[in-house]
Amino acid sequence: MTVVPVHLSYPEETLKSVRSKLVEKLSNKRSEIDSALLDRLMNDDLLLRRYIKRRNGDPETSVTFISSVLEWRKRMGLPDLTETSFPSEFYEVGGIYNYGTDTQGNPVVHIRIRLFQKIEGILDILKKFSIYQMYRADELAASKGPEYGWVLVFDCTDASIANADIDMANFVSSTLRNYFPSGQKYTLVHRLPWLLSAVKTLVYTMLPGYVKKKIRFCDEKSLNEHIDKENLPDYLGGSGKTNDYRVFPDGLSTTRDLTTKGILTMSEDQLVKTNQYYDKLRQFLYPVTEESTK
């Protein structure tokens, strides 16, 4: 029998009430919602409790919240996404990925700000990839037990103004606030350059107080207070090698191939700019040395 932690211990009557109202509200709208997630909520008490937690245990507002989540997930096409729905370049670059745990055993999602640049054409699929990776961490944490959550790490090492995308930062923040169940433990911002301090201040104005309290800042000296070396990738001073965190699923297609298949909608000009961007990242991530050419 699973022990329900105190922060999720709502009365059985609350769960029954929320489920009953969800069925009443959504039974004729299954084609407009993520019906698979609704079915899970009907049977998984802990998952339902985590969504109810986001509305402080109130049944009425919980129903409204869950309904909006189910509709949003359907609009975004999230129920149909798999790891092969995304360009192979996303995995090759390794700008967003799941890897390791923090010192408390919570799964970690890593985002390397240095590898991002706002390029029209791939923004929508990049947003979906971000959501996909964060949901993976949330599901992994839930599978470990109700006491676990997950952590989001923004590595800002060598990031510049060219890598700062306020719209993307606001998208990630608003998505976590409005469409995720309770589960994220905290956000860790690593080595924020002073050049991006103004961006941080602007982003902070968009965040509610409870979100700000979850944000922690660290440098290379204090990073290991949160995540042990054996759970960090090599570029953060950890023991994780490239092949440990840049994992390539079978069946991937390139950005151009996905566009040819009609899965992505990009103009030839956007494709050229995107491929030029990928080439620059390859040069940064996989520099050619005299040794490698011998």
UniProtKB/TrEMBL annotation:
Q: Name one GO cellular component term.
A: endomembrane system
In the record, which residues are listed under signal peptide?
Answer: none
Limits of the CRAL-TRIO domain: 78-244
- Which stretches are annotated as coiled coil? none
InterPro entries, per database record: CRAL-TRIO_dom (IPR001251), CRAL-TRIO_dom_sf (IPR036865), CRAL/TRIO_N_dom_sf (IPR036273), ER-organelle_contact (IPR053012)
Question: SUPFAM superfamilies of this UniProt entry?
Answer: CRAL/TRIO domain, CRAL/TRIO N-terminal domain
**Protein name, entry field:** CRAL-TRIO domain-containing protein
Q: What is the lineage of its organism?
A: Eukaryota, Metazoa, Ecdysozoa, Arthropoda, Chelicerata
